[in-house]
Amino acid sequence: MRGLWCAYDVIVMYRMKDPSGPAEYTAVATSLCVVEGVHTIDQYRNEEEFVTECAKFSVFNEVELRTIYRERKYTYIVNFTYNVALPKRPNRRKLADEVGLDRQERWSCLPLSDEQFQRILNVSEVNQKFLKF
Predict the structure, then answer these.
(1) Cβ-contact 34, 80 below 8 angstroms
(2) Residue 67 CB coordination number (10 Å)
């Protein structure tokens, strides 16, 4: 693994299981995003700058952002652009059986080979004319 993302890397967003059933069937790949930039929390001069800059694009509210800054549990900030929703959302079972992802790994931040990425595109039936990565 080469480390953290670089600009223009593609992220396959993965939604963890929900309470309605086992992960094999309810955890799914949902969409594709492109990394625009990566930096560390230490690059902000203070908490106010961090909150002001991150609040514009974050899924976290102000209180959560302040907690993140103070606890420094997450040290990297990844800016990315949402590109396309996957028409067919492959579940964990399909991602393991047909794409080749390892069930033994924690699926929070996995590097994908080019072949695995292409398989995800194929099983999700995404229209590849939208992919200009």
Answers:
(1) yes
(2) 12
